[in-house]
Amino acid sequence: MTNLLDIQNLTVKVGDKQILNGLTLQMKPGEVHAIMGPNGAGKSTLASTLAGREDYEVTGGSVAFNGEDLLELGAHERAAAGVFLGFQYPVEIPGVSNLNFLRTALNSQRKIRGESEVSAAEFMKIVKEKAAGLKMDMDMLKRFVNVGFSGGEKKRNEMVQMAVLNPTLAILDETDSGLDIDALRIVSEGINAQRRDDTAILLITHYQRLLDYVRPDVIHVMAKGKIVRSGGPSLARELEERGYADVA
């Protein structure tokens, strides 16, 4: 089976500092991978680089997504191609309602792909269904993006965004950060709902608890800007017990 995501020897600088140092990672359609590792390992840098953040300079290596050179695409083109980034700290956007933000984003992506826009009625049907699955009240979706939301509400809001935009590759940067037990379960259900034979999910996390709900196919340990070890569920339990001293 052809890889959906194929990263080869990726090196990335932020300012004058080299963060990624020859990182290699492949994901096939239908797979969920988790990346764990100590602070400063480069996990968030990898996520931002894949999403197309402009101040992250790729100095070597390659990234193929669905057989296409991902690094040649702008951030908006990557989004339209099916790449979604869930932020560790979702930003607030005062003055822009969630509903307006979501419909604009969805139709912008569809336009780039040469597809027709979704009508207001069609959009409301989609968003009501996705929001209900994540126990997100429609009144919250009428509010400004993330303004006044708790940490758990912001993360649920991102899961609604992911569900509506329906990406092929979802990169979730510490989506479990700051969640209580109930919110973690709801967010995990949103992640699992995205699992299909034609999608891939890359989870970045510090904690075993998320992986108890979203069971990844592969767990990678990242240190000093590259993947240093990969394994199955037992690897996460080992890290939980022993920490990163042996890999950092």
UniProtKB/TrEMBL annotation:
Keyword tRNA processing: no
Sequence ranges assigned to domain ABC transporter in this UniProt record: 5-247
UniProt-listed Pfam families: ABC_tran
Family annotation (InterPro entries): AAA+_ATPase, ABC_transporter-like_ATP-bd, ABC_transporter-like_CS, FeS-cluster_ATPase_SufC, P-loop_NTPase
Any one GO MF annotation of this record: ATP hydrolysis activity
UniProt xrefs under SMART domains: AAA (SM00382)
Superkingdom: Bacteria
PROSITE patterns listed in its UniProt record: ABC_TRANSPORTER_1, ABC_TRANSPORTER_2
NCBIfam families: sufC (TIGR01978)
Family matches, as PANTHER family: ABC TRANSPORTER I FAMILY MEMBER 6, CHLOROPLASTIC
Family: Belongs to the ABC transporter superfamily. Ycf16 family.
Protein name: Fe-S cluster assembly ATPase SufC
Organism: Gimibacter soli
